[in-house]
Fold:
Amino acid sequence: MENLKIGLIQQANTENIQTNIEKLKQNIRNCALQGAQLIVLQELHNGLYFCQTENTQLFDLAETIPGPSTDTFGALAKELGVVLVLSLFEKRASGLYHNTAVVIEKDGIIAGKYRKMHIPDDPAYYEKFYFTPGDLGFHPIQTSLGKLGVLVCWDQWYPEAARLMALSGADLLIYPTAIGWESTDKPEEKERQKNAWIISQRAHAVANGLYVVSVNRVGHEPDPSGQTNGIQFWGNSFVAGPQGEMLAETSNDKEECVVVELNMKRSEEVRRWWPFFRDRRIDAFGDLTKRFNN
Structure:
């Protein structure tokens, strides 16, 4: 496929899951009306980002895959003839849960899934309490639109994850995301955090000669415990090209649906100019599999 239109849905959520889903469905329709063939949703898009506290009651939010969300969004994907990238709280078994991205093919069938490999445990991001690290590896998901290198949020800080997806033939890298500021951070610290997040992902695009699509949520979500001032999700969803060039970028404070057209032949051109894969010293990289080298 030479040209591919991708839709990014940056949304603010409430505690009403059904309302959030209905808004997502309408936003998916809006992207499809603009010609989007592939539409990416943010991390854990059905509800609030519940990992601000550790609460065993919240495991009730998890669902099976296949399950209600894949049924709902699968029917919509089939109706519109689009490929969707979902992000769900997966119940694999009693006491075993994952943060899982699911790709729905345009016929409504599940094309594949990816379980988040890197799980953070920071103030207001207590994900290790909820999510078991993924066990499906770094393998692109084959679709009618190409091979999608789907990763999730905290994975975006790790060049190894992006590289392994690229080495397995990914045509582009996709990051559903939920990241934001704690309100007591100073403005200059907030800017440093956001810029580091953007720079890291643009670097993955450059190092691998691939498009990178990152879709973040937006809006303020309070801390149910009251111990912090909650999270202000910074939005700033974007698409970067194979040389790190910014092709689209949303705001920090508004809900937005953006459709971007990509020339999929661009990656081949850039990799010919910058043959990083050719020049990799794979004979000298064995120590990368160690935790530390002393």
User: Anything to note?
Assistant: The mean pLDDT is 97. DSSP finds six helices and 17 strands in the chain. The helical segments are 17-33, 68-80, 159-167, 187-208, 266-273, 276-279.
